[in-house]
């Protein structure tokens, strides 16, 4: 009787809790805890806002063009006298910056720099996102397959990865891209934009799935020996169920971290290839092509080089900081 009375005193019923106005404690999910850690990281929040701004500018490029009243293709300097000198240099100081042309004019052709920069974001992000989607999907499939099956499959996939990593990818891009385009375009004709973009996406995808595949292979090799995987096998779960229900949920964190690292890497790689002349070419707006043209006029019109260079630097830096913050939020043990 005494024990029963003590239990009643120590454990108030639901009516007493409700009458006191107190709410029972509610647990937080791993996602809520990660979001809470991310919000406390000021650098991560600011970087996320910067990255979001770049994405919104890229998606809203046509709307910005409509509001601004200009496009990235019209050669304003050639159509309107007084904007460019006889040598193709903007007549007004600072590359022709004024209230009409916010970031000035492109040397020689007289196109609006602001609109080229906005549409250049769109080009770089579109190619980078498609490439990252492909390499992530391929890397996840191959990495999980190698780690889960092991044996000969793991050995064969590992040798393929080692072979691809041993090939100098930049030299391969420079040598293979013109050859690939020549297979579909007659001599003397310029390759259409969609074909160049497709070739660029395929070439970048061939070499860049290896990092995610190798990382996930190592993760799966560690996870497949854990108790919950052994329990699933003993209970008669199929390999498909083990991979989809047990392994894949535990690989979300490394996959997200790799994605946040791959996007800025693909943006810089695409810009580098366009700078070297094997990526996007005239008249498609592209940061790499703008930097290449700006390097030719660095002494006379330095602003045309500064704007795309600073934009590329800010985007890559913000995305890398965002990736670090996402990693620390999802896996606080990785933070030292």
From TrEMBL:
It is a multi-pass membrane protein. It comes from the Bacteria. The keyword Amino-acid biosynthesis does not apply. The chain crosses the membrane at residues 45-68, 125-151, 163-185, 191-209, 247-267, 304-323. Residues 9-30 are annotated as: Disordered. CDD domains: TM_PBP2 (cd06261). Keywords: Cell membrane, Membrane, Transmembrane, Transmembrane helix, Transport. Its main location: membrane. It is found in: Cell membrane. The keyword Secreted does not apply. InterPro entries: BP-dependent_transpt_permease, MetI-like, MetI-like_sf, OppC_N. Belongs to the binding-protein-dependent transport system permease family. This is Peptide/nickel transport system permease protein. It comes from Kibdelosporangium aridum. The lineage of its organism: Bacteria, Bacillati, Actinomycetota, Actinomycetes, Pseudonocardiales.
């Amino acid at each position: 009787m005494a024990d029963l009375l003590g239990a009643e005193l120590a454990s108030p019923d639901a009516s007493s809790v409700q009458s006191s106005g107190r709410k029972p404690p509610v647990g937080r999910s791993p996602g809520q805890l990660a979001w809470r850690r991310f919000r406390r990281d000021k650098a991560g929040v600011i970087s996320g806002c910067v990255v979001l701004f770049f994405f919104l500018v890229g998606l809203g490029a046509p709307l910005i063009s409509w509001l601004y009243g200009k496009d990235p293709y019209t050669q304003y300097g050639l159509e309107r006298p007084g904007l460019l000198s006889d040598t193709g240099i903007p007549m007004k100081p600072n590359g022709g910056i004024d209230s009409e042309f916010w970031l000035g004019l492109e040397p020689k052709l007289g196109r609006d720099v602001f609109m080229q920069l906005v549409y250049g974001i769109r080009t770089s992000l579109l190619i980078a996102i498609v490439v990252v989607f492909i390499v992530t999907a391929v890397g996840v499939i191959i990495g999980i397959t190698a780690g889960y099956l092991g044996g000969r499959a793991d050995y064969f996939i590992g040798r393929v990865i080692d072979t691809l990593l041993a090939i100098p990818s930049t030299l391969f891009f420079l040598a293979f891209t013109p050859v690939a385009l020549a297979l579909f375009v007659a001599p003397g004709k310029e390759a259409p934009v969609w074909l160049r973009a497709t070739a660029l996406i395929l070439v970048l995808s061939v070499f860049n799935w290896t990092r995610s595949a190798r990382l996930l292979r190592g993760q799966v090799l560690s996870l497949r020996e854990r108790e919950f995987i052994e329990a699933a096998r003993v209970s008669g779960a199929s390999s498909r169920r083990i991979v989809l229900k047990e392994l894949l949920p535990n690989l979300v964190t490394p996959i997200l971290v790799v994605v946040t690292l791959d996007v800025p890497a693909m943006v810089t790689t695409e810009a580098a290839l366009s700078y070297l002349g094997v990526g996007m070419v005239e008249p498609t707006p592209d940061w790499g092509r703008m930097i290449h043209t700006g390097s030719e006029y660095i002494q006379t019109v330095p602003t045309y080089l500064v704007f795309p260079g600073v934009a590329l630097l800010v985007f890559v830096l913000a995305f890398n900081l965002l990736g670090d913050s996402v990693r620390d939020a999802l896996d606080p043990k990785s933070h030292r």
